[in-house]
Write a structure and sequence with these properties.
Subcellular location: Nucleus
Order of helices and strands: HHHHHHHHHHHHHH
DNA-binding region: 189-248
Number of helices: 14
Largest sheet: none
Family: Belongs to the CUT homeobox family.
Shape: globular
Helix content: 25-40%
Biased composition (Basic and acidic residues): 28-38
Biased composition (Low complexity): 1-11, 255-270, 350-360, 399-414
Number of strands: 0
DNA sequence: TCCAAGTCAATATG
DNA sequence: CATATTGACTTGGA
């Protein structure tokens, strides 16, 4: 139903051609790459292409990816989703047989595709596979067959095990865990999977707002205070950072470039914070990707404040799990730093009440590298807290760095390609919904921290890095 | 070593 | 059942 008028179709061509007809005879056996030369070592490793790969061309997917023109990841996932739902094909089947990925990964990929230019070679692979699949006239049919086969196998199995009530057939490979006895005990060999409580996540998010890249010391403290393993805290930060980054990417795609300097959305602006963060559900685009998550610390400043947010958890030695914890602390965000030594500049008392205007600049400064931590922390956190106001500096910084925005200046081969897709410019299609401006803002603020971090890191270096935020 | 990018796989949700 | 979320792990780069 949703429109999908785009005249896309052709863009696809190029890739198809690359696949279908290039490579003449040259057989392969160990490849003798027809291309240039580079990278003599590595590459092969082995098979690398367990999947069908439509018609099995002589080229490996990796090679295809390497020569693939820029693809419209968003458009591809959109079409794949359509085809799958229209034909009642599940992500699991599709993922396992076409992409070689698990259901969860497919779900993620389809829901939040990253723009092509942000993907690594590895990350592009699934998209090339999807494109290939879309180009295959029998794609659906093949998958349907697979589905049937699976069902048949399943039926067969069921049939055979009918007799005994306990189909317990460890079957499969490997040494079964034999004396498992009752499936109750033991299992602990597989780790229970940590599940962070909402309060713990909140606390981590607050910590993130203050310092996206906590020092080992800070991490240690967080772990202790939240009663979590250090590795869990580290992993959480890694995951959170990269997931926030991804959210920013999709914003980038959806809101299309459009980054007109100048006026921008002046209205609103100051207000916002105020009360409730009314997540404007007003009207929604079809595909609801509302996922603001990552930023909803929502933190409307106010009240609370001071007091390291975690103080509470401190004196509760008993096991963390299940315990509700107090949860009381209102977003006190404030440096949880003081707990440790700390000394030198104390974070400004600053509670964040109204009027607290950010400390604008701060970036560009930071010349000295040593001691970073503190300085950046306070600066960053301050701006984050005040959110709105900090924008000023944000924009200025962007200017300084001249962000490339959509960049993606193709370059794929010599422009001769002409027909090569043009996708990727559906920009204004959906205009901007300043609805989520608020959350967007927070995300950007978070991203700013990231930028600052990288700037600092590069500060001690010369070379003209390539910044793309 | 740290980090980012990709994934997996357990488990939430629908 | 299917799809979405998410802590942990794997790779590869510096």
């Amino acid at each position: 139903a949703p429109e999908s008028p785009m005249s896309s179709s052709e863009s696809v061509k190029s890739l198809t051609e690359l696949v279908q007809q290039p490579c003449p005879a040259i057989e392969t056996s160990k490849d003798s790459k027809p291309h240039e030369s580079s990278e003599p070592p590595v590459s092969e490793s082995q098979s690398t292409t367990p999947l069908p790969l439509s018609g099995h061309s002589a080229l490996s997917i990796q090679e295809l990816v390497a020569v693939s023109p820029e693809l419209d990841t968003y458009g591809i996932t959109k079409r794949v989703k359509e085809v799958l739902t229209d034909n009642n094909l599940g992500q699991r089947l599709f993922g396992e047989t076409i992409l070689g990925l698990t259901q969860g990964s497919v779900s993620d990929l389809l829901a939040r595709p990253k723009p092509w230019h942000k993907l690594s070679l590895k990350g592009r692979e699934p998209f090339v596979r999807m494109q290939l699949w879309l180009n295959d006239p029998n794609n659906v049919e093949k998958l349907m067959d697979m589905k049937r086969m699976e069902k048949k196998a399943y039926m067969k199995r069921r049939h055979s095990s009918v007799s005994d009530s306990q189909p317990c057939e460890p079957s499969s490979v490997g040494i079964d865990y034999s004396q498992g006895a009752s499936p109750q005990p033991q299992h602990q060999l597989k780790k229970p999977r940590v599940v962070l409580a909402p309060e713990e996540k909140e606390a981590l998010k607050r910590a993130y707002q203050q310092k996206p890249y906590p020092s080992p010391k800070t991490i240690e403290e967080l772990a202790t205070q939240l009663n979590l393993k250090t590795s869990t805290v580290i992993n959480w930060f890694h995951n959170y950072r990269s997931r926030i980054r991804r959210e920013l990417f999709i914003e980038e795609i959806q809101s299309g470039s459009q980054s007109q300097a100048g006026s921008s959305d002046s209205p609103s602006e100051g207000d916002s914070c105020d009360g409730v963060d009314t997540e404007g559900p007003p009207e929604g685009k079809p595909s609801g990707l509302e996922a603001d998550e990552y930023s909803n610390a929502t933190t409307k400043s106010q009240g609370g404040q001071a007091e390291s947010a975690f103080e509470a958890g401190e004196e509760v030695p008993q096991d963390a799990r299940s315990s509700e914890k107090t949860e009381s602390f209102h977003l006190g965000m404030e440096s949880l730093e003081d707990t440790d030594d700390e000394s030198r500049l104390k974070a400004p008392r600053q509670s964040s009440p109204p009027g607290s205007q950010s400390s604008g600049e701060t970036l560009e400064t930071m010349p000295n590298s040593a001691t970073e931590e503190d300085a950046s922390t306070s600066a960053a956190s301050t701006s984050v807290l005040t959110g709105e106001s900090s924008f000023k500096s944000k924009e200025s910084s962007e200017k300084i760095l001249s962000l490339p925005s959509t960049s993606s200046t193709l370059a794929a081969g010599s422009q001769k390609a002409n027909s090569i897709q043009s996708l990727f410019n559906f920009s204004e299609a959906v205009s901007s919904k300043n609805t989520r401006d608020n959350s967007l803002r927070k995300k950007k603020a978070a991203n700013l921290n990231n930028i600052i971090h990288r700037l600092e890191k590069a500060a001690s270096r010369e070379e003209p890095v390539e910044w793309e935020f």
